[in-house]
TrEMBL record:
InterPro entries, per database record: Glyco_transf_92
Transmembrane feature ranges: 7-23
Sequence similarity: Belongs to the glycosyltransferase 92 family.
GO MF entry, a single one: glycosyltransferase activity
Annotated source species: Asbolus verrucosus
This enzyme's EC code(s): 2.4.1.-
Heme keyword on record: no
Keywords: Glycosyltransferase, Membrane, Transferase, Transmembrane, Transmembrane helix
Protein name (database record): Glycosyltransferase family 92 protein
Membrane topology, from the record: Single-pass membrane protein
Main subcellular location of this protein, as a coarse class: membrane
One family name in Pfam for this protein: Glyco_transf_92
Length: 397
């Protein structure tokens, strides 16, 4: 009789546990849906956000840049790095036509002030036969701050000088911990949502997208939701005049560092399919606190994951965990401590066992050797529950 009693208790326990698991699963599903509705109130609010003619305020990163044809080259952006010095990011094919003259424009003066011109080469890209330069304009100390700068190869009339609006890149207070700048890459709404949701999850809430093809509808939704989501998302135009290349990434990285200087403690440039993954901790801030913070730059190794599973109900990063063992692939991404200007930068190389960049790509040829890396799976539940991912899953965004 005692045996039957124990068997009955065991059966009741198994049934109770099964019912509990079923209840928990259904509760979580309902919880996710209710969380989304709770967040936005009524479903029609999403369409209101994309149709509204108003866009909420966002962090001011300076004048909106754009590639402008300038004599024999192209200028993207210009920054006031000191009160008497400006730097402009420029692409040129022939160094012979680098400008010889530069001018500063002030709001209280009709005529520009002549500056001293110099330049420095950042890099060259043989694929597009373009060189990336810093055009530098300096002047004697001034009590006033210029709002624009001009460069020219030959002397011109003042009315013919092309003004490049200046972003102030000095005299700021650090009020953002980390900013991710996103280099232009192949757009996918799923990639976009998962990238934003994941990095917000690990504690990064400031993003600058160099936008080439993110739909304006989605830009409006994310911008108007940014306060509720607890993040800052800025979209800068990217009308690069040539085909994509390494020079795109280097240009974006330099613009990012100058644009965020003194405002964001750390800055890093990534693509939409690249994720910062700490192996043993849950937040980016903890990762940085545990590393050598005296150095100006950290390098994180990039690991390539071939996308084999495209299940739509789960994030891509959570269902593709096999990384290629290609030892010739030695790409790194740099995290900059962006509050000091130095010519010689000290770099701390992070071991991939501690943290790495997970890059998810479609492989035309399967790698010969792979191993499993599940370090990102600790974020699986929270990422699947994230508001933006749930909106995507339920076709609300």
């Amino acid at each position: 009789m005692k045996k039957y009693h124990q068997l009955l208790l065991l059966i009741i326990s198994v049934i109770s546990l099964s019912l509990f698991l079923i209840y928990r699963h259904e509760y979580n599903r309902l919880h996710y849906v209710l969380e989304v509705f709770n967040f936005f109130g009524q479903p029609c609010n999403i369409s209101n956000l994309q149709q509204t003619e108003n866009i909420l305020s966002h962090h001011d990163w300076g004048p909106s840049p754009a590639w402008q044809e300038h004599e024999s080259g192209y200028i993207y952006s210009a920054f006031l790095t000191r009160q008497n010095e400006a730097k402009a990011l420029t692409l040129m094919s022939d160094e012979k036509f680098v400008p010889r003259n530069c001018y500063f424009w002030f709001e209280d003066k009709k005529k520009p002030v002549v500056g001293k011109f110099k330049f420095s080469k950042v890099m060259n890209d043989e694929n597009v036969r373009l060189n990336l330069y810093f055009y530098i304009c300096e002047m004697s100390n001034s009590d006033h701050v210029p709002y624009a700068v001009s460069f020219t190869y030959k002397m011109k009339k003042e009315s013919d000088l092309k003004k490049i609006m200046l972003s102030n890149s000095f005299n700021h207070q650090v009020n953002i911990n980390t900013t991710i700048c996103i280099s232009p890459s192949i757009y996918s709404k799923r990639r976009f949502v998962e990238f934003l949701s994941y990095h917000k999850l690990i504690g990064i809430d400031s993003f600058i997208f160099y936008n080439r093809d993110v739909p304006h509808r989605l830009v409006k939704i994310i911008t108007n939701l940014s306060t509720r989501l607890g993040l800052q998302a800025t979209f800068l135009p990217w009308n690069f005049p040539k085909s994509d290349s390494l020079i795109t990434r280097i240009t974006v990285e330099n613009d990012c560092l100058l644009r965020t200087f003194g405002q964001s403690l750390y800055a890093v440039t990534l693509e939409l399919n690249e994720y910062i993954v700490p192996s043993h901790v849950y937040s980016f801030n903890t990762l940085m606190k545990n590393t050598n913070t005296d150095l100006e730059r950290m390098s994180l190794p990039v690991q390539r994951f071939c996308i084999a599973n495209t299940e739509t109900t789960k994030p891509i990063s959570m269902v593709n965990t096999y990384v290629s063992d290609d030892y010739s692939y030695n790409i790194v991404r740099y995290i900059y401590k962006n509050n000091q200007r130095k010519e010689d930068i000290s770099t701390y190389a992070v071991d991939k066992g501690y943290a790495s960049i997970h890059k998810y790509v479609r492989c035309s040829v399967e790698p010969s050797k792979v191993h499993r890396d599940e370090s990102i799976l600790k974020f699986s539940t929270d990422l699947s529950r994230s508001t933006l991912f749930q909106l995507l899953l339920h076709n609300q965004i």
